[in-house]
Amino acid sequence: MVSYLLGIGRNFPSLLMGFSARKGARSIAWEIADYFTHIGLNVFISKGAVPISALSISLIKRNIPMGVYIDGDDSDAWHVLPLAAHGGPADPIENQNPTVFSLPFSGVIGETDLSDLYLKSIESLTDFRFHTDTLLSQFVFPFPEIQKKMLESDFWKKLFDPRQDSISATISDDGQIVGLISTTGKKIPIEEVFLTLGKYLINVRGSWGTIIGPPGTEILAQKLSIKKMIEIQEIPNDPIELSYRAGFSDLLLGWCQPGYLVHQGHSPFGDGLLTLTYLFETWDWEKSLKK
């Protein structure tokens, strides 16, 4: 990975870095950023924890050719994921180059905001005819810097106003997954969310493109009652592979277990907040039909 970043850094010796909301990720990210400066790279690190989609979108919008996202797992291992200019995972073949070298100077570290472009990207995809009601009994969002901005917005702040006897939602530490618990206390499976959003995006939004998912997606997609021919790609149940494929396709929806959903016109990574936003639209649209 280091040689991959340095190879790109010969022409553009700066990168964006984001880190997840997992405990300890901030300090690990700053240690890695310091290492990168000693091999000649300038690092612009997020002010706080952000979804990986926020880093991805900033790479695209700022036209920066490389980024790095820091996250961990339940075995206390830390992962450094390199991102390319298109916002998706870097090419794994290029990333395996074993050559190691340093650039002929030292880099610097600076903080940067990755949240504004992220929220604006979601808002640009939103249908403002809906979102008229608060539908959550609880909303757990692990990104305090972004939440602060959301609470200043009439559009977003209602997410944090609880309504009893409703669905609860929890966004994962990397922002990719929204966990949904029904009013009966049962987890809503990703397959159900995929079908709900697929029907809404196709039949109401008129969206089109490729569906990407794990084995069984073609059979599942038959429940969408698609009237036209549509490409369906079945891939291994691997979120990195999903994001890599999504970055190079005319995507409609991509999904994999345990709850990743990738959306058209956004980042090639899963995004729990955008998934939740589309669900609000779907639920409000369904209620409007009953009036």
SSE diagram, text form:
Blueprint: H1 2-9, E1 14-19, H2 25-38, E2 42-46, H3 52-62, E3 66-72, E4 78-84, E5 109-112, H4 115-124, E6 136-140, H5 144-151, H6 154-157, E7 167-171, E8 178-181, H7 190-203, E9 210-213, H8 217-221, E10 232-234, H9 239-246, E11 251-256, E12 260-263, H10 272-290
Parallel strand pairs: 1-2, 1-3, 2-5, 6-7, 9-10, 9-11
Antiparallel strand pairs: 3-4, 7-8, 11-12
Helix pairs in contact: 3-4, 7-10
Note the run of SSEs as H and E: HEHEHEEEHEHHEEHEHEHEEH
The helicity comes to: 25-40%
Put simply, the count of helices is: 10
Shape: globular
Main sheet record: 5 strands, mixed
Overall structural class, as computed from helix and strand content, comes to: alpha/beta
- Strand residues, percent: 15-25%
Oligomer: single chain
Low-confidence stretches: none
Spatial arrangement of strands, main beta sheet: 4-3-1-2-5
How far apart are the first and last residues' alpha carbons, in Å?
A: 56 Å
- In total, how many beta strands? 12
- CA gyration radius, whole angstroms: 20 Å
Roughly what is the average pLDDT, rounded to an integer? Answer: 89
Give a brief rundown of this model.
The chain is α/β, with parallel strands linked by helices. It is 35% helix and 21% strand.
List keywords for this structure.
291 residues, alpha/beta, 5-stranded mixed sheet, 4-stranded mixed sheet, 10 helices, globular
